[in-house]
Every structure is written in C-alpha cells, then in structure tokens.
Amino acid sequence: MDVKSRNFLLMHRQALEKDIKTSYIMDRMISDEVLTLQEEERVKQQNTQKEKAAMLINIILTKDNNSYRSFYNALLHEGYRDLAALLQDGIPAISSGNRKSSMDGMTSYVKTILCEGGVPQRPVVFVTRPKLVDAIKQKLRCLGSDPGWVTVYGMAGCGKTVLTAEALRDHQLLEDYFPGGVHWISVGKQDKAGLLIKLQNLCSRLEHDSTLSQRPPLNIEEAKDRLRLLMLRKYPRSLLILDDIWDSWVLKAFDNQCQVLITSRDRSVTDAVAGSKYEVHVESGLAHEKGLEILSLFVNMKISELPEQANCLVRECKGSPLVISLIGALLRDFPSRWEYYLKQLQNKQFKRIRKSSSYDYEALDEAMSISVEQLNDNYKDYYKDLSILPKDVRVPTKVLCILWDMETEEVEDILQEFVNKSLLFCDRNGKSFHYYLHDLQLDFLTEKNRNQLQELHKNIVNQYKKYYKLNMPVPSQEDCMYWYNFLAYHMAGANMQKELRDLMFSLDWIKAKTELVGPAHLIHEYVEYSSILDQKDSTVRENFQEFLSLNGHLLGRQPFPDIIQLGLCQPETSEVYQQAKLHAQRETGAFYLEWINKKSLKNLYRLVVRPHRDAVYHACFSKDRQRIASCGADKTLQVFKAESGERLLEISAHDDEILCCTFSADGEFVATCSADKKVKIWNSRTGQCRCVYEEHSEQVNCCQFNNRSGQYLLATCSNDTFIKLWDLNKEYCRNTMMGHVNSVNHCRFSPNDEYVASCSTDGTVKLWEARSANELKSIEIKDFFRNADDQPDDVEVLVKCCSWSRNGDMILVVAKNKLLLFDVKTCDLLTQVIVSHHSTIQYCDFCPGDELVAVALSHCSVELWNIKSLSKVAYCRGHMSWVHCVTFSPDGSSFLTSSDDQTIRIWETKKVCKSSDAVLKSELDVVFHNGEVMILAIYNQKHLQLISGNTDSVIMQTAAQESPISCCCLSEDLKFAAFGQENGTVKVLQLLDGKVLKSQEAYRTSVQHCRFTSDCQTLISSARDSVIQVWNWQLSECVFLRGHKEAIKDFILLENSKLLSWSFDGTVKVWNITTGNTEKDFACHGGAVLSCAVSRDGNKFSSTSADKTAKIWSFENSSVLHELKGYEACVRCCTFSPNNKLLATGDDKGEIRIWDVLTGALLHFCSPATVDEGEPTHGGWVTDLSFSPDSKMLVSSGGYLKWWNVTTGESLQTFYTNGTNLKSIHVSPNFKVYVTVDNLGILYVLQKL
C-alpha cells in the first residue's frame, strides 16, 4: 500500500474504529476479492464492535492499494459518507497504462475508475448474464462521443443496477469511450429538496481536488449549471450514471449535453429530455439453472448437493434475481430454513422475506407497492382489476376493452402507462397487443387485493355476459381463445355456481372449446372445479368428464368429429346422452344414429390420449403418478398430466425414432434413447436438455433410471451388444457391461439398485452387479423353447423384456409367446405361462403387488395374468394396432398402454380385473325380418350366438365346438343356421334349440364362406381352395363347382339357380348350381379379383382388383363396358345404386369414387374436407359399401363407418367404433338400421334417428 494511503488510514483510525459496523463492509470487500473468508472469520471472532473494526483495519494495513480503494468504496455505499470523505485524499493514483489484466476485464485501472466514480461493487454472490451485459455495452458504444441517454429498464428486482455496474467493468470500454471517468449517483424516489442534496453531493465529489473550494449550489438550477461546467471542462467524455430514476422531471436537472446512463422501472422516463436515446430491456426472469447457481454460491454448496427444496424455491422465485438473492442471503444466515422460506413464498408472505444489505427496500412487497403508489387514483383501480389475470397468460387488448367497456385506443393508453413503469409487460403480436404481468407482480396484487378477488372475478364474468349475451366468441376474434381458456376460471373465482355448471355442462360450449384447444384443458377444469360443480351431485360432472376422457383421442383429430353423435353413444342415463338427443331432435335435416345395443359395452379405460402423430413406443408414469412421459416414431418426447392428458411439454428430442423414455426417481429428469444412437437427459419441468451421451455405436433400445432418489444413475442398452451405466454428474459413461453377443433389447435396475438385468436377441437374460459392472448370472432362455422332439427350437429366441418382483427375489422374462418366472438366486424356473398361440408378447410389467402381470400383445390387446394361479384375470381391448408397451403406476392402481394406433390408454386395474372377455368375430350374418334385426355371430371362437339386435339379448347359444368357427349364415325364414369351421367341417343347425341337424367334413382347409339358397334346402360354401361346394343338406347330395385355378375370394347367388364367383386367379365365373357347369367365364383382371357386384336389373356386374382397376361388364355380351382407372391402391369393394345409374368403389387408400354406369365417367370422390397429416381418408381400407333405396345416400365401412351425400360427395356423418378394421356393413332395406363388428369383437346395431 502507498505510504500516503497507509498514513491516512492510521491518521483516521480512531474515528473509523468508533463508528463502523463491519459485516456489510466486509461483504463488499469479499466481492471485490480483496478480503478472504478466513480473514472475515478472524474479524467476526472479536468480541465487541470496536474490536472487530480494529481487526479489519489491521488486516487492510497489510494489503495493497486495491484494499484501500475497496474499503473507501464500501464506506461510501454503506452510508459512512463522512468517514469516506476523511479517506478521500488518500486514494492512491493509478495510470491507465498499468494493466494488471484479469479474465473479466477488471484491471487495476478499471478498479480505480469505478471506485472513484462510486460504482457499486459486485454483490457478494454474483452470477453473470452475459447477453444483457453485452447489450448495455453495445448501447454505450452507440453514444460515441455525442451527448445522449441509455435507459436500462425493467421491473423491481430484475437486476438493472448489478448488470449496469458489471457492464462498466470493461477496460477497453472505459479507455476508448469514457476516458474522463464514470460518476454514479443513486437517485431513487426524491422530492426537490432531496434531489438538491443529491446534486450538491455530486458537485462536491467532482470538485474534491479543486483548489477553489466553492460553496454548495443553493437551488436545482444553480446545481444544474455547475454540473454542466464541471462535466464540460473537468470531466469531458465521462459517463454519468443515474441509478433508479422514478420521475422524468428529475432528469431535467441532468439534461446538460453530457452522456448519461439511467436505470429505471419506467421506460418512458426519458421522454422529457433531448438527445439520442437507446434502450436495454432487462428481462424479468433468470433461467432455472442460474437461479440454482446463485443459491449454491450463497450457501457454499455444489448445485448437486442442494436439498430438494432448492428446485421448488427457484421455481417460486419466478426467476427474480432479487428474490433469489434475498432468499440466498437469509439461508446463508439460517441454513436450516429451506422449508420455512419455501412455505413463505408459496403462501405469498413477502413481508417475511426481509432486507438484504444491498437493496433499498425493507421487504419485497414494499419494493412493489412503491411502484403502484406512483399511479394516480383511477389508474390504481384499473391496475387492481389486473389482480385476477391468470398466470403466464398474454391477454389481448379486446379482453380488457370488454372488462372496462372502453374503446381499444383508450385501453391501450392506460396499459401503456403500466408498461412504461414496468408494472406490466407487452407483446406485440401482428397488429394486436397482448399484455401480461410477471408472476411476482401478480402474486403481490392477489395478496394485496385478496378480499376483493371474488368481486373482481364476478365483474369480468358479468362484462363478458353483457358483451356476448347468448352468443359465443368465434375464432376470428382476438379475444376468443382467452374466454375459452379462462371463462370457467373466472366463474370459479367468483363462486358463480349456477353459471359455471351451465357453462361446463353445455355440449355447445364443449364442442366449441374442444374444436379449438382439444379436450385436455376441459378435463383439467372438471377436476379443478369439481368442488363447485359437485355441490348438488357429482354424477353430471363425472358423465361429462368420462365422455371427454374416453373420446379425447377422437376430439383432437381432423376432420373434427360430430360431438352430438359421440354424445349419442354415451349411456342413456348420462346427461351427455340426454343433451345430445335433444340437440339431434332439434336439428332438422341432420343425420344421427342411435347405438341400440350399447348397454352391453363397458369402457375399462379411464383416459385415452393421442399426443403423438405416429406410433407410440413407450410411456411411463412419474413416481408421484401425476405425469406421464411418452415417446415414439414421430421423434418427440411428450410429458402430460395423468389426470387430464393436458400437455406439459413437447420436445423434438432426436433425429430418429425415440424407442424408450424414463423418469428419474424424483421426477426431475426424463431420459430418452433413440435409433440415432444418442441418449439424452431432459429437465422434466422446463424441457431443457441437460446432457447428451453419444458412446453407443448403434441404436439405443432402452433406458432406465435407478429406483432411489438422491443419486442419478441411468442404464442404457443397444444393438451394439453393450449395456452402459451413466452417472448424471459425470460427462462420460461410468461402466460398460460386456457379455451379450447380439442386440440388447431391454434393461432394468433391481428394486434395491444393486443389480441390472438385461435381455438380448442372443437368447439370454443376464444379471449384472451395478457397482462393479461384473456379470453375475446368465440364463439361457432358448433352452426353454423346444420342438415336438424335445430338441432346441431352430427359430431365434428373441428375449424382449424383463421385470423384477417388488422384493427383487424373482424376475419375469418375456420371449415369443411365453412368460417365464425365475428365482434370482438359483436361476431356477419357478413357473411359465404360454399366453397366446396367435401373437407374440411385446412387453410385460409386474404389478407392485407381485401377483398380477400385465402383458402387451402384438394383436392389439393387453392381458392381465395372476402369476400365482397361472390364470388370465383380464382381457383389455381398445387399441386398434400393436401394443408396444404396458406399465403400471408406482402403486399398481392403474396401468398405461401405448400403441401403433398413436394412442396411450390409462386403465384402472380393479375395474379391468372385474371385466369379462366376450369377443365376437367379424364374420356374421344378419336378417332384417318384420322390423326385427336377427344377428348370427361367432362368440369367443367356438360358440354361435343368435342375438336380437332390437333388445340386445342372446336368444340362442350353441355348445363349444371342437374346432374354431370361421364363418356362419342364417336362412331367410330364420329356421336354420349354418357354420364352417377351421378344420374344414360344415354344419347345419336348427335355430329353435341349437341342435345340429347335419354335418359334413367338406374341406381340408378353413371354411371361408357359406350361404343358404332362398329355399333354405341347399348350402353353398367355399374354403381356402379353388372349389365351391353346393350341398343339398336335406338330401345329402353335393355338387362341386371346379374351374378356378386359385382360391375362391367370394360368391353371390343369382336368380334361376345361377351363381357368380370370383377368385385370386383374376377370373369371374357364372355357374349353374344344379348341373355344376360353367355358363360364362370372364378373364377380368391381371391381379386377384377382390369384389364383385351385380346391378339391380341383372344386366351388368362390376369387378374390382388388386391390380388397381375396376371394370363394368355386360352379362349379355360377356364383354367389358368400361374400365375404371386412376386408383393408387387395390380396389377393395363396389356396389351399384338401386336405380342402376351409379357405381361406387372403395380402395385401400380410403378413397370412394362415384362412377356413371352409362358412360364410365368419374362423377366425384367422396372424401372429407380435411384429414390429419398421414391419416388414411377412411381410417384405413374401404371394405364395404351400400346405397340407400333412393340412390341419394351411401354408407361405407373401413376404419369406421361413414355416410355420404352421393350427389355432392360430402360426408353426412361418421360413427367412430371403439375398434377398427370393419369387414362389412349389413344394411336394412329401408336404410335405417346398420350392423357391423369391429376388430375388438364389439357388435354395433345402429338405428337412424
């Protein structure tokens, strides 16, 4: 230290020891890096205040010039101005050439300039925000050498002062642009007397080494004039910083052609002064990681060591640097109060979060309320109205126009006043403005106006009703989305029970809202406001909630389904059904359908969501069951609420399909792995990518976090044959487990995290020690698959998946169609179950109770098995395609399934276990007789049922047959039924009692079709071969129709004992069934003939083929009349209109074409206006078609049922079945009753309303 400086310290030592309190002064000196924490501890160990001050001065005397400057600056900023003045003349001089450089530009030259200029030190804890600091520097450079103003503005506590001071810690900036120095003055809220004192102090500071000591200026004008001369003559090219400016009139005192930087909450504060103006807006929020960094520095811990409450605290601080610093400073003094301060923030107890040394207001609420108090009285009332705005929502101007009953311009003027004072934020969106409050401002307002919130909510609802009356907002209006999202929130806030029930239980509202935003938000509202909605009875709310939960996957698609039709499918006791029925009856000319036999159907799932636009490969619950993460072929990771399906996060996570995702035990992170060979870790709340691991060399099939909180371990496995273990706190893989010789498909931690199990295509399951990565055990699964000769099966045994029991003693393994349960210690097989002979197991999961196992199957279903009794306890149908994954919730009360059909379904375990698994095959026959609908169906493969479609009752059921039934038919007089079996047998039975009258072993292959002739004496059948059998079952005589070279596709009975058949060989033949001779032979197509239809007048027939063409033929001339081209897929079905003028065809692309029979011209397509990208037009192939008697309407089956206006091609109605792949549609002669079965085995008898 310079001798002069040292002498000044010794000279004034007594005065310093007598007056100073050391704690805050040491904070500043530590942040200047001139005092160490050990030295601070030495000072604190002294007993009295005077002894502490003496120790601090002794320490400073042993140090360099920077310590003197830092001590001087600390005195100045902690209010010891008189003491600082004693040391002022001892400040050591420094030349700009002395560049003891440091990383951040803080050379000794910079320290001197800032110290002399009174620039605040860095806070004790400082986290840089480089983008904002650079923005301030850039605007300062824009000033050049010209006079002007830079305004750094933002809300209270956003870090304006700290960032401005940091921007000045730049050697190059100061030397090149402000060689005359910088002069910092903290202004704050001042009256004229206060401002004069500030100006007098500044003039005194700038004149301190002047030989002429002048008297202080006596008024503001004199002070302004003196300041102008000082800046012009003594400090040219210097920067004046005015911190915390509130009023524009204050600036006029400094408006004297110099360069000024100001910090303010009011953006418009420089409107009253002249010169160039530049602005820097300081955003109100820090990133989550920055917030954690500040806390960790305050409490001297690594981020990874912070307690669980740290994440919650940073979230509650809403990114405010001020609040995080206040909390951090408090925690430094009271390290055990994490929970206490978290509760204070959550309860909005801002008064209890008290002052830290470097902030000018006693508590957070004071800082905010001072800003509000600056408003004039009627503006205060308008600002109070904002207390009820929802958090994080940009509110369009129109909403506030309705609230205040004002013109747009008037409202914008009021709101601009708030924006200028940083009390409100504004986004410009195209031509319109959207406004929002920072979370802390909103918390402050709601706390301050707590007693008036209900009235404020009521006011906005009444203003809405006054404006819209009985109408609803339409999408073209800018306020539309706000009301659909938040009208219910305001009604609930106002406790307007009747209004809320009327709104939430209105199908009109539900239709309008779901069309705009989908169903998830509505489901969330039913849950959120259930206490108000259930005041009388919860049934109605449950009706609507269930309706949306089970139809959500339909309500998010294009074209938007008819919500009235969906409502008509609800149980008749449901309020949704009753409203839908009223709507349907009121709408004249509309086409609606009643599902007559819906009583028999019980929905076993609680929620269906469709978050992805392609196959969903994996989904899992968070530990608290509140959230679900899912991933799939669309390369996205989705996180949504388990209660409502409301989307929380959507991340385009990888460059290829994502194969697996998993939550960490504490729910903070989600891991994903992909065919792009990468593993990524995401913050599950913010969606930020924490890290990317790229050590696997092939696609990564599975990722799994460990089960215990506190340590983040992740296991991954890949086609590269390796399992890798990752510690999230490390950059590289912790361990690699080597031993498999083929792709590893699945891996899982044991419940205690000591072991990892892996499943491989090499036919083994291996158990590894997690700590050492050593292989402990290997089980050869392929040994348990043997052929009839007890030899190992030649086919590769791909081990798909495994699941640990809760105690870790057993492990369940899946391969092919078997479940195998092993003892972990001995590797003995405890039990095995063959789940299915027709499909493979895709995934399995142990229920936490250890008895139940859920199994996902390739044929669209999920089964629950009791592993102790080896019995199937539930059969879950609902998915329309392969099920890839099934996962139980942590408590086992529910499980979720994900599928190729793009949906995720959540099932309630208890509900599912009580259900039966009755399934009908899609082959059925229907007779419409005197208003009765009689249905013959194949039930659970081996029974026949005769069902009354009118009453949904089973009239007759046969005993189980020895071989599965493959087809069936009814006689027109309803006396007989016939059926074919997979073993080739054909049987005729009596409907009255189900007694088999005749049986014939007709074929060696499965029977495909059977039909009675009109006299019921003859049964015609075909199998998977080229022969048709004509069996007079009463006389036991048989005629064989031979001539086709390949298998028969199907046949139609014509008049006069004729039959039309078509085959995979591309030919169509006309037979005489009495003689067995071919009467006509048509070589129709180059590919298989898939369908034929005969015109009502009997003159023509049409054929459709896999060769992508359809043709119209003349019976009389045996020639083709028209070849119908232009198809892009197989033409699957066709039918003539009753008036013989039209032909309709349907293809595998889902398109329906209407043709003119006379000319062969294409009249038009039947197709919806819009379809979701990648969706087939008809949900898949068009499989069957039928015209109405007047030829004006058409019904088609495919992925679902559709009705069309034949003249225009427009869709009249869509009926979404629970399953898909409808093979046929049976239509009554009056076109009012329709019967079909979906691939889930559910029967639909529909009647036109």
UniProtKB/TrEMBL annotation:
The keyword Cytoplasm applies. The keyword Repeat applies. Residues 1-90 form the CARD domain. SMART domains: WD40. InterPro entries: Apaf-1 (IPR017251), APAF1_C (IPR041452), APAF1_CARD_dom (IPR037963), Apaf_helical (IPR042197), CARD (IPR001315), DEATH-like_dom_sf (IPR011029), NB-ARC (IPR002182), P-loop_NTPase (IPR027417). It holds the Pfam family CARD. GO terms for biological process: apoptotic process; proteolysis. Keywords: Apoptosis, ATP-binding, Cytoplasm, Hydrolase, Nucleotide-binding, Protease, Repeat, WD repeat. It is found in: Cytoplasm. Monomer. Oligomerizes upon binding of cytochrome c and dATP. This is Apoptotic protease-activating factor 1. It comes from Grus japonensis.
